[in-house]
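Record 1 of the preview.
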Amino acid sequence: MIIFDNVSLSYDGKTVLKNFSWAVPEERLVVITGPSGSGKTTLLRIIAGLTIPTSGKISGTPHRVSYLFQEHRLIPRRTVLENLRLVSEKPDEWLERVGLADSVGLYPAELSGGMRQRAAIARALAFPAETLFLDEPFKELDDATAGVILDLLEEQVKVRERVILVTHDPEFAAKLAGTVARFAGPPLRLLDNADI
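->
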């Protein structure tokens, strides 16, 4: 179980977490939702071990993770296919599943924002990790493409130990079958956990 015990974090004069305590629900899928700027991304980064809190304790964090950042973070000097080859022996399969089979030879700068997002999602899904973290995966996607990604995420929930997803969009949260943790802030505070 992932447990936050009186965790605090401040940066640039802004308090993001203050004496924050929370037991992350032990579900295969946990959706973290709340307004933009409330601290959801920071919470996800702490769970993934990418950000160290100022004080307090967190226990039970996973060891092998795959992480989709809000920024695509594709390597600019590598093609889409080469970016996927860094994490997968079947890059073509993943690119086809996100609708980029015709774009394998393109570089990130040659892609639209939605295409870069899909390439980043494919890379995150292709990496074999027990836990999958997704920060705003539906950003820059049209409704049809978001539907395809939702289907892929539902598959991932069945094969990963845990999927933790951040979204500020309650419509997407409602489309995923899991536990939704609703937050407000800053500083970040839990409003409720609800099964959907």
